[in-house]
Amino acid sequence: MLNIAIRLLSIIALSLAATWAYAQQYPSPTFNNVTVNGSANFKGSTSGTTVLHPSATASGTLTLPAATDTLVGKATTDTLTNKTITDNQTNYTRTETGAALLTDAVRWQNYAITPQDFNASAGTGGDDSAALNAAAAAASSATGPNAGVLYLPPPPSGAYNVCADSFRPQKVTNGAASLVIRGPAGGGATIRSMPGCSSGAVLFATMQIEGEAFSENVKSTTKLTFENVRIDGSCLSRYTVFNAYSVGLTFRNSVLRNAATGNGANYFQQSGYETSIDNSNRLENINDAGHTCYNTSADLPDYNLWLTGTDNQIGAVAVDAKIANFFGAGGGNNHFVGTHGWGYPGGTDGQPNLRPQFNYLMEGNQVLIGTIGDQPTVAGIRLQNTIGDNSGAIISGHTITGPLEATVKGVSLGNGVNRSTIVGNNLAFTAGANAIVADGTIDSTNIILNNQGAVLTSQLTLSGLGGTTNQTLGLVCDASHCFFSSTPAQGSSFSNNSYAVSGSNGQHIFTVNGTTVDTISLVGNFAGVPNILKGYTLASGASQLPACISALNRAFAWVSDFATAPTYRQTVTPGTGGGGTIGNTVACDGTNWLAH
């Protein structure tokens, strides 16, 4: 009985605040408020012993039985492995004074979404299609200060690759959010068709914009913007960027480059409006070091930029295309302002001769203001195939520059071009009569005035005499002479009279480029009879006989300074001979002046 009492007293003491200085073993005790001096050993049946040391400040080790994980100390530096932290389960405070406590979810809202959020290896050389498209979809639905921003950190391999699918930044389920895709300020973010890729989607386009899938009530709010991004077709993709439909697509400080050979472009817009590609952007097809795609112009895509949409604003530089740097198809009232189209002539930046046929190939009511055409092989601007509403192009302040072959035209007009305005352009780099040419007769509804060049074409409306109605005739001027490129309509008869100009019957003095030109008189019966030009000399000077060109075919001129009388059908060369007082009529056969 005495032993039993002693054991009971010991248990009671333990339940209060017991202290042991020696080892004891208790099979299944319950302890409250126990102080351990030394150490307490806890033995499991199969898992060894756990030792607890007494002081929180003393050094020691807490060994967990059968431990398979890491126990993190409160004030220690530890490395976590194989851990998952669920959104909004962790709080953060910045080190700065006054910083607020942020939940995990709020903290992440302050950072832009990146492709690495969906694949930690994005940008290291593999296929990043899935990561890019997932990141774009997530960014468009994110909230917080970086909502709608997809950031592209500089990729370690130099590029983000697409192969399994094109990059489709606007293929978002709700389609109601705008999206900004932004690279670093240095422009070091490249999205490219993965070299060697053979998937149909990427061979069609490196990037596809598909806003046409959106409902009408959100189309105008789903803006898509690119900043500091390079999109590279790697000479594989027919289109570097294929835009099926967009409203308000914007590029800034970006490069669209290296589409495949053939009927494609660096940028093609099938439909949509209000696209802005300003003069901070560049469209190019250029061989990279160690990767030659283009040996001749035949290897290039047909266009740098190809628009069939409407009301778009273009100001970019475009370099190297097979047919044209800029192609405005089917009208659309697109504005090309300050654009610069050109092609490498061979040797520039180590590139071969990659010049386009045209800098600008335009249909219908396109607008070109302050543009530059640089070293085309056929013409700086080609207007053709006007659209059904008969609204023509506006071209003003355009400059063509060279060096150019003598056959290159400044502005070339196709049959049927009408209601176009071509005013105030500098075409002086073109040779002779090639400043402005037409496939056929220039339509009288076109307004062509004040264009600098070796030979310039203008239009003049003359009041008919003798009861005839007003007529508009093509008027061709060089630096010192003007002459008509067409004759009055059949049946108009003016005997021994001059056309009345500006309401004044009789001869009229014209001023071209600040120079007073000779009097223009049309005499004789004009039922199909060509023009007669007066007051020319063979000797060089302000009155020198102009060159005989196709526009002057069947025209006559009076030359007043032959030194000797010419023989019949003698070839007469302007600037050669002269100095005499013998007058004689000469006729133009479209190539040479012949004495009559």
The overall pLDDT, averaged over residues, is 76
- Give unreliable regions as ranges: 454-531
Q: Radius of gyration over alpha carbons?
A: 41 Å
Category from helices, strands and their pairing: mainly beta
Explain what the structure shows.
The chain starts with a helix and ends with a strand. Helix content is 7%, strand content 30%. The protein is built from five helices and 43 strands. The longest helix is centred in the N-terminal third of the chain and has 16 residues, at 2-17. Among the domains are: 2-42, no CATH class; 124-390. The chain is mainly beta and 596 residues long.
Task: Please render the helix and strand layout as text.
Elements: H1 2-17, E1 40-43, E2 49-52, E3 91-93, E4 101-103, H2 104-109, H3 129-141, E5 149-151, E6 160-162, E7 179-182, E8 189-193, H4 200-204, E9 205-210, H5 216-219, E10 224-227, E11 229-232, E12 239-245, E13 250-252, E14 255-257, E15 262-269, E16 276-277, E17 282-284, E18 301-307, E19 313-314, E20 317-319, E21 324-328, E22 335-337, E23 340-342, E24 358-363, E25 367-369, E26 372-374, E27 379-384, E28 394-396, E29 399-401, E30 409-413, E31 421-423, E32 436-438, E33 447-449, E34 455-462, E35 471-478, E36 482-484, E37 511-512, E38 515-516, E39 532-536, E40 556-562, E41 571-572, E42 582-588, E43 593-595
Parallel strand pairs: 5-7, 6-8, 7-10, 8-11, 9-12, 10-13, 11-14, 12-15, 13-16, 14-17, 15-18, 16-19, 17-20, 18-21, 19-22, 20-23, 21-24, 22-25, 23-26, 24-27, 25-28, 26-29, 27-30, 28-31, 30-32, 31-33, 39-40
Antiparallel strand pairs: 1-2, 3-4, 34-35, 35-36, 37-38, 40-42, 41-43, 42-43
